[in-house]
Specification:
The strands form 2 sheets. The chain has an 8-stranded mixed beta sheet with strand order 10-9-8-11-13-12-14-15, sandwiched between helices. The protein has a 7-stranded mixed beta sheet with strand order 3-2-1-4-5-7-6. It has helices at residues 24-28, 45-52, 64-71, 85-92, 112-119, 139-146, 168-177, 196-206, 216-219, 221-240, 242-245, 277-287, 303-309, 323-335, 355-365, 384-401, 417-421, 432-442, 465-478, and strands at 35-39, 56-60, 76-78, 97-103, 123-134, 181-189, 246-254, 264-270, 292-297, 313-316, 340-343, 369-373, 413-416, 447-451, 490-492. The chain starts with 23 loop residues before the first helix and ends with a strand. It has 493 residues and is α/β, with parallel strands linked by helices. This is Methyltransferase domain-containing protein. Residues 266-419 form the Glycosyltransferase 2-like domain.
């Protein structure tokens, strides 16, 4: 497409009206990355969503009018021809990213695999790639073919500037051939959108000069009502038959992580741990002398002062907001500065001697989460009601989600940081460990569950049993639409 928006396709003479809107499925999969490269960023709506989550977003765009608008939304916009090795090398020299976005861009190039491979050197190990591709097998196209029609249009699946066409499966194959590991697939539905020609014709009719603002539809009240009331229903319906009912297939993939030494943060949530913090930090230093220690603290005693004096980074959360918000802060603070987080309680219920074991599993085996299960058998240090409650919650997770865990509330886990940044975990309320176990397991990441000794605690328990039970049920239900039921990559040891 030329800079003034006219089509270069043979025989096309009309001005192309491009509707600018966020790609909802793609934006929903962004997570909380640190540095994003938005390839073919358009006016920057998708990259803007990543920026609002704290990322530094660099856009690539070649249409001058789009560049001007994108610069108002993104941190920077580069005019780079991604089909040229020389242009990419010159434009991205010295840069690295943990997320690449390709929102309806790869179908416009003759060799999409070459474009992906050209940009992968600038993606860090384990970094993610999110790709949106129009679905040429959508029901509207199939009906046209039954009638003997395959007519190019000025926008949509059969856009006259598309050089390549993809089904759900051929899109996956293309990404795998480019060297990516495809983790999960999402979709934007092709239901209400089938009436787009009628809507756009109406917009042209009422627009001054017959040329609507490309963003006017997105800003309109009917569109906002559609997104809030109708779109959630469409998503449920389209998920039943995505090959047929998807307008766009959205792929979440990553650069496969390599076996290597990872920088480590050992994290703890501390609240009045004065009796144990010094000894606990000594144990951590003994088994992981190179690790950073991070405490999210809500204490009223001397715990934070002791931890800081011994070299820990202490983030104060006062007044206390509960386990979920504290864990959310811990996870994303660790993910911003280290490759790996190992979390454990500060009360000696989980032995620090397991830290090197968890670290080795992630570093050498490419595992994303290690869940330390206390409840394969009942530990002597755990009261019977607590044991039965934990096993009941695990059984519910198995029935509802197909994940064969026996401990959804473990207080010791290892998390690969690139995996954590791929999700936007919401810590509001209790029972966040439900999400941080089930989401990765259902979304294609490799999870290992191993038994661990559970010991008598030092100090008082901070467990909120009623609130924890209520939030456990809420999170088990809320996790139902995430990813796919079951996981072939959940390993019990």
């Amino acid at each position: 497409m030329t800079a003034d928006g006219t089509s270069t396709a043979e025989g096309a003479t009309n001005t192309k009206y491009v509707v600018e809107e966020q790609n909802m499925a793609l934006v929903g999969a962004i997570g909380r990355p640190r540095r994003v490269l938005d390839v073919g960023c358009g006016v920057g709506l998708n990259g803007e969503a990543a920026k609002k989550r704290g990322a530094h977003v660099t856009g690539i765009e070649i249409v001058p009018a789009s560049i001007d608008r994108a610069k108002e939304r993104l941190d920077e916009v580069l005019a780079i021809d991604v089909t040229s090795d020389e242009a990419v090398t010159k434009g991205l020299a010295g840069r690295s990213f943990d997320l690449l976005l390709f929102a309806d861009m790869l179908e416009h190039v003759a060799d999409p695999i070459a474009v992906i491979r050209r940009l992968l050197p600038y993606l860090e190990d384990g970094g993610h790639v999110i790709v949106s591709l129009p679905n040429v097998a959508a029901w509207t196209v199939r009906l046209g073919l039954l009638a003997g029609k395959f007519v190019y249009t000025q926008s949509g699946i059969l856009d006259d500037s598309h050089l390549r066409f993809f089904t759900r499966e051929t899109g996956r194959q293309m990404l795998e051939r480019a060297g990516l590991e495809v983790l999960r697939l999402e979709q934007n539905p092709m239901l209400v959108r089938a009436a787009k020609d009628v809507v756009l014709s109406a917009q042209r009719a009422v627009a001054p000069g017959g040329t609507p603002d490309p963003e006017s539809l997105r800003k309109s009240l009917p569109y906002k009502l559609y997104q809030g009331l109708v779109r959630p229903v469409e998503d449920v319906v389209a998920a039943r038959a995505p090959e047929l009912l998807s307008f766009q297939n959205v792929y979440v993939a990553r650069k496969p992580p390599k076996a290597r030494k990872l920088s480590l943060t050992v994290g703890m949530l501390t609240m009045n741990e004065e009796d144990s913090i010094e000894a606990m930090m000594g144990e951590i230093r003994r088994v992981a002398p190179d690790a950073k220690i991070l405490c999210v603290d809500s204490s009223t005693d001397r715990t934070p002062e002791i931890a800081a004096r011994l070299g820990a980074r202490v983030l104060r959360q006062l007044p206390p907001r509960g386990h979920g918000p504290a864990m959310e802060l811990l996870m994303y603070s660790a993910a911003a500065e280290s490759d790996l987080l190992i979390y454990l309680d500060c009360d000696f219920t989980y032995p620090a001697d397991y830290i090197p074991v968890l670290r080795r599993i992630v570093e050498e085996e490419g595992v994303d989460v290690v869940n330390c299960a206390r409840t394969r058998t009942r530990p002597a240090a755990m009261p019977l009601p607590n044991y039965l409650a934990n096993r009941s919650f695990a059984a519910l997770a198995h029935v509802m989600h197909g994940i064969p865990t026996c401990d959804v509330h473990s207080g010791m886990r290892a998390y690969r940081s690139s995996m954590m940044r791929a999700f936007d975990f919401d810590g509001e309320g209790d029972a966040l460990p439900i999400d941080t176990l089930l989401f990765p397991a259902k979304c294609g990441y490799r999870v290992v569950e191993m038994p661990i000794d559970y010991q008598e605690r030092v100090g008082q328990s901070k467990l909120r049993k009623i609130a924890g039970t209520v939030w456990t049920m809420i999170r088990l239900v809320n996790a139902l639409p995430v990813g796919q039921r079951g996981s072939s990559r959940y390993e019990l040891r």
